[in-house]
Predict the structure.
Amino acid sequence: MSLIVQKYGGSSLADAKKIKNVAYRVAATSDAGNRVVVVVSAMGDTTDELVELAYSLTDQPPAREFDILLSTGEIVSSTLLAMTLEAMGYAAISLSGAQAGIKTDSAYSRARILGVNPKRIEKELDKDRIVIVAGFQGVTEDMDTTTLGRGGSDTTAVALAAGLKAEACHIYTDVEGIYTADPHLVTGAQSLAEIGYEEMLELATYGAKVMHPRAVELGELFNIPILVASSFKNSPGTLIHGGVSMEVRNKVSGIAHDLNVAKITVVGVPDRPGIASSIFEPLAEAGISVDTIVQNASIKNITDLTFTVAKGDLSRAMEVIRPIAESIDALQCASDSKLGKVSVIGTGMLNTPGFAAKMFSTLSREGINIQLITTSEIRITCIIDEAKVGEAVHALHRAFELEQAK
Ligand code: ASP
Ligand code: MG
């Protein structure tokens, strides 16, 4: 008997009819002779609504209360799915993240899973029950509820697949798999049959919303193949795994984009040891994660330092930075919140010249100005005007001939 972990996203559970659809799929997997653990997200936009509700009452919801509040969305969907399965004649039980043994650190809203104690789940599986786990949440050593960051129920699923030594981890969503670009934006985007962990991690980190980056990282760490497929259609989906063929690896896999980018430039910074740490340490202490960092070569010991943060963190980051800039005698602090990122990703670019040149010439032909560039071995990212991101993705998708990919 195989043990299968399935995860269903919020849009697949958005109303009673969709919950029934998921219940049928879970039941079919159980009927096929598998032991099934299901991880669920909150119904539809529940999490966004809970966030909004909290902020309608206070500008600064206490982190602990906020996480308990957000975790309730997944409790609702897990209980409703368990009830539906019971009504269909299947033995099922819902478990919260804490009951399912998901242990995390205490970084509220972005907690990391420290370990999984699968005892309770195994006990329920031994009683021939289908186990429904509320995703996106865990519990600290002190028994406080935490959440894993937006989109975190993917991570719950992969962590459970690892902890339970499951045969398979299936992520069911509202698209047919991993695409060469966001299919909502590019109509010619193709669903990929397979993709390696490292490319998937770059795609997820640089804007592809289908998978939570941490889930991909865990998949790679524990070598768990992850199938991403539609919860509405019976299409083959995309397999994320470590054994991708050379032919597939020799290409660009996709174009990712992200509209959530703001830039801060500290102008006229004295170039001496300790300056970068005096800027970035306080940002880290404030829990602000900094992405791209560029420091210019200095002229007469004066330099400019530019970095990006998520748009939602910009005003807090500026509050932290302004007094520091003054204390280190920088000339000024400027910010721009209307930016986006577009990235070309593929193991094909490893040690192969020409990919960057092609990306830059494509953007220049479209009249798109590049503000910052960052790269990894398998990714080139340009930060550009937010309003140009759509055009850039289309042009790059064409230039790298991704319509033909498959
Ligand atoms: N419900 C949470 C969110 O909207 C977690 C998830 O969907 O994976 O971010
Ligand atoms: Mg989600």
